[in-house]
Amino acid sequence: MTAKAPAQSELALKTIRNVSRRLVSFSCNGGEYRHLPVQTEINVSAVEIKGNAMVDKLVKRGVLSLTDFKSPSKVTAKKSASPSKSKAKKSTSPKKPGAKGVASPVKSEATRSASSNKKIIDE
Fold first, then answer.
1. Model pTM score
2. Confidence bin at 58 (pLDDT 50/70/90)
3. What are the residue boundaries of the structural domains of the chain, listed by start?
4. Which of 10, 12, 20, 32 would be 6's cystine partner, CB 3.0–4.6 Å?
């Protein structure tokens, strides 16, 4: 017995996109469950969803969008003769006291007097 080669349409990939505003979960024909967050898409084998009642119902209701997979076209970037300039990194030095969101190191009058009294007592 020789295994029958799958048809070209069975080897094709399909793109499934969640067009709803909710998480959508469905099972594939192979028993695997797929979970699609809002506005995301996945590529699955056509065999996994062919004749799948759950996927057909979700497509009919407008929850899922089913399209043929299109491989991303190869884009060749032109290389320029001059080297690219990188942006200078921001310094990570500490912020100056008194800047917005930074506590000032100046102690309040009550704290200063309390700490000076403690020094006198300790001496």
1. 0.50
2. very high
3. 11-68
4. 10
